[in-house]
Amino acid sequence: MSVHQLPGEVWIQVLGYLCVADKHSVRATCIDFRELVDCGLLWKDWTIVLAFPKASYNSPFWEMLRRRKINKVVVRSTRAKDWRQLARCLPSITTVVMERSSQEILDVLKNFTHLKHLAVRCSCTSLLLTASAVHKAERLTHLSICRVQFPSKSIEHLISAFIDFRNLTSLVCHDTELNEECTMTTYLILGCLPRLKHLSLTCGRNVQAVLRHTTPLPVKEAHALSSLELIHCDHSLPQDAMKLLPNLQRLVLIYKYSDKDFVADIWFAAMREDLKAWLSALHRLSTLVIKLGPHVNRYVPNLIHLHIDPWPSCLGTITAEIPQLFPKLQSLKIRGKHVPEEDFLGFQKMADLRYVEMLDSRPQFSEMAAKLQVLTKYRVQVIDSHQRDILDCDCSL
Fold this sequence. Notes:
Elements: H1 8-15, H2 20-27, H3 31-37, E1 47-50, H4 59-67, E2 72-75, H5 80-89, E3 95-98, H6 103-106, E4 117-121, E5 142-146, H7 155-164, E6 170-174, H8 179-182, H9 186-192, E7 198-202, H10 207-211, H11 219-222, E8 227-231, E9 250-254, H12 260-281, E10 287-291, E11 305-309, H13 322-325, E12 331-334, H14 341-345, E13 355-358, H15 365-375, E14 381-384
Parallel strand pairs: 1-2, 2-3, 3-4, 4-5, 5-6, 6-7, 7-8, 8-9, 9-10, 10-11, 11-12, 12-13, 13-14
Helix pairs in contact: 2-3
């Protein structure tokens, strides 16, 4: 059968069902299939990882990426010449992840004229990140900084740099020396970035003092934020902290323990009460993620996505409370360890539930999953935990 006996759009539809390896096998058969497989529609939102081996990449490789319209790249090279080649061969790149960062590489970023999303990770030396590092600071909408050193330890210095990226809608700042000083004070960041919708911070020692700062947060800026992540949140926030963020729809809390005996006897009980207070203030909350923290014992009627992995790492009999606390859940991500079968099957009570994602596996899990699917007439899909997005850092794992 000739390739031309079917319209190209039909072949694209068929090829879309193939895995990457099978696509490449088909591509190797003839020129016509090579052109079909390299169609940009088959590689939409695809991210490529470039390590730049000693042999480097040849012209046909870059031409293939251009035909596929690849514009998201994770780079694992620290050689400036590799970055210059990337900018020259893929001029339409909009997303760049620098897995190993240096000042020399930062100086090459201005060659990426369409850059919108930038992630800077793992620097061994201090980096000077300013608006002049990119072609157009106002074009940048997503900025992620992880395990990066800065020449100044002043929080005001970095905040002043953020001001130049005035169109940021997403800011991630993890494991920097600055976090230990004052946890990237939420009210300062929102004050200088009025369009910010997503904020993810690694909390330091002073997070409680920061959020209890007497300077009020401007209402207009606070209303823009819809997603907040606090990582290593091992100190209690004030119970009225979330009142500053009335439009928050997504809350991620990842805790870190330094003294488990203290946690069990004093801190853990206090955190449960704080969590109840936060949730009571977040009337628009639709997504909640809690890792290594207290279980939720607050009724949240409008929550539709829940990921709960408490400390200790088992839900046990707490599972039975989930249908009553979150009646409108559509997706649930839990760890199955010590979850009684009766309580697991009780998820059928949630009429809107569509997905249950398991963070672990156990011998009798497949049998329990099959029973739940039968009880819900296959409305609920039970799936294994997904792999993380390669564009995300691993701080929240």
